[in-house]
Amino acid sequence: MTLMKKTLFLIAALFVSLTAGAQTVTDYSVTTDPTFFTANQQVKVTFDLKGFDTPNQWGDVYLWIWLSDPNDGNPSDQGTWSNTADAYKMTNDGNNQYSFTFTPSALWPNVDPTTIKTIGVIAKAKDGSDTGSGEKKTYPDHMLDVSPEGVLQIQNSVTSPYIGTAGEKLPVTVSTSDTADIYLFLDNTELKMAHSVTLSDTVTLPQSGDHWLISKAVTATQTSYDSTFVTIRQDLTGLLPDGYKKGINYVNDTTVGLVLWAPYKHNVYVLGDFDNWQPKAAYQMHKDSDYYWITLNVEKGKEYLYQYLVDDSIKIADPYTEKVSDPWNDQYISSTTYPNLIAYPTGKTTGITSSFQTAQTPYNWQVTNFTPPAADSLVIYELLVRDFDASHSFQGVIDHLDYLQDLNVNVVELMPVNEFEGNSSWGYNPDFYFAPDKYYGPKNELKKLVDECHKRGMAVVIDLVLNHSYGQSPFVQLYFKDGKPTAQNPWYNQQSNFENPDAQWGYDFNHESPATQELVDSINSFWMSQYKVDGFRFDFTKGFSNNFKPLATDPWGSKYDADRIRILERMADQIWKRKSDALVIFEHLADNSEETVLADYNKGILLWGNMSGAAQNAAKGNVENNQADFSWGSYTQRGWNKSRLVGYMESHDEQRVAYVAETSGLANGDYNIKDVPTALKRIELNAALFFTIPGPKMFYMFDELGNDKDINVPSRTGEKEPLWSYVDDPNRTDVFQTYAKLFYLKRNYDIFSTTDFTYSLNGVTKWIKLNKNNQHVVVEGNFGLTDADLSVDFPVTGKWYEYFTGDSIDLTSNSYMAHLAPGEYRLYSTEKFTKDHIVTDVPTVSANDNPLQVWPNPVQNSLNLSADEDMNRVTVYSITGRVLLDKSFPGYGKTSVAIQSDGWPQGTYIVKVITTSGNVETRKVMKY
Length: 928
Hints:
alpha+beta; Immunoglobulin-like; eight-stranded parallel barrel; six-stranded mixed sheet; disordered N terminus; signal; Putative secreted protein (Por secretion system target); Ig_E-set
């Protein structure tokens, strides 16, 4: 594009100011006629869309135009982005050139013309909306500078920076807004002078080095300058140093090696703080086959930002960077979340930059030999960092890990945490695969999160999106033209293999490509080695194939695909090669014939099993005609040999089950599922008959508190309020405790992972029988709206213990008839199971505040208690039922007690006091 930078320079400031305006050229340009125009002057803007084919597919091309600050607005008659007004249709001048003529002050009649300084323009289709495949129906935006009245303007025709060849004959034209004495210099040498409004010359470039092409215009009252930075490209080759790999190589505290793999490219420069973001000769990278490399001498411990300039026109961040600097989004990251975040080099470059820093403080791992739990005992808690805690940070998750430990979770599954576009997102729009997203905090905080999970016996699985990337990915940008990847792109298909537009996101990886397979393996290896994650949940693995998926017959790619199986098995083998006990989980949801092969392969690939439809029907009481059948939640029902089905009633993708129960639950007389307490009991019922099906299980955050917020408010992927206030509701903590007890059983008693089990899960009443080593369990529940008698043949006679109530039954025959109220569930066992540390009922807070005083509240390090009579016993519970303190006082007790609370995690606590006379008082306390 042609820059119209018309700043009036003072001679003394010339060489400082000229370094700030470097830009790059892409396959289109924007020019104006006249070159300089004022707000009251008619101007013709022309888009030269050379190299682009899509205008022929769009039909007509339209102009989208706006004012930048301080006015910041569109013309009132322009229409909308999806339906631009016909008055803004551009003229087709032929040869892929389109033009539009306007007078700025006429387009914005209500704006003071003297305040119109910059105008933004875009060439677009009438409907500029994305096609759904990631292909854009617009071209990049371009800013036009509006000249102030009466100020001498100057511009030379060579865009800065210019990368030339030795001895090249470079045509140069200098234009001014008024007749002036025009001078052209190469460095300090005057080349030509003319008294005119234009000067033209052909400049012979030097053999090597960095130079300035300077133009100067002088009138009786004004002097103006323009300049172009020129560097001479060399044929620079050299063998890649031993040990150098793609990306950043820390040789020592003062030496860094950078390597870019770029087949079909011809030259690469490094731009950064060290060369003032200009492609200087000293920073041209050496070429070794398809590799470009350079070794830099740097300051120990200093953070540097940098980019690559490829083939003079493509400017990208390092695709292997572990940190980016983002000109659009970093400004919204608070210093609390990410302290001392480096500032973006505004005015020196454009686009995302990468970062390196020697002598970084390494994370000191506390747990170095963690072993993930066995696949068939997994209790997976899926969470989105953004919505889990108000701080939307890794530290915010750490602050609640004791809560998850109380819940008896043994796997924390983090929705995508690598850099994605924007700040607030689910994360399925990835752009950088080796950098944690800074909106969640520094990388060492993520490492600490993994470490803290391991301390508590919880594995960590991260969600990776390797089906596609979005447009800010350097892997996409390096080979990109006409709104899509080029045929030379080593990693991406030019078109999605899905005809269904709803199955197209971003730009589709070509998983048949060796380059993509190498990249996938390096990504997986990186997160396991650098962050010690225990495995991965891979998003939309049905996309890991190049076979075409027709909209009419296979819209979601669910049909058996042998090539896809081969690709996925190869990836799993490479993961297990690096970490033999890694958890490999696919969101596949394909035909059972294909999933059976994957589940039974090698160590067994874990596969998501979506049972949300049955769970929603069960919760709301719609149980007739097998609509609430849980049977497909069992791997045996699917004919699998291994317990690799990750069954779930709710993931991030589905409507919340409690919301469905509360908004569309059925009723019979006084039993109304829409009543919140009743709906929450239905959530417990679901849990009892679903989580006890042998095999790994998963659920989405706050499901354990009866999350009843509509997934579509404010929008499906929009920010949701963390639900920590729900822990104050006894009905919801009942749900929590039911989950915690079930997961305790699953984690601590082998019978809940048995392969010997039967079930009847398709009716109004449901049951499951588990058998192992002469021990037996029977779970039963009533999903109807009325009382029900459920007759189940128990495997043995004798004493059976009911887990939730503590009751027992003595059977003299195998047949037992249970009378179950609607929503009632029971779990009987021949072994009397323990209850872990979780109390059955968290005490209710007393209404009378007088007999017991508790301060300070909130508390930090020490909590004081004072009572009207002697205290005999003090117990402190977490809101989830964990007992933190249980202290008795012998003899006459005490009327004042001090309790150390500095070791308590942040959260809500209940203090229970029993006095010597037997009175019981409770208070709620907040710890911060």
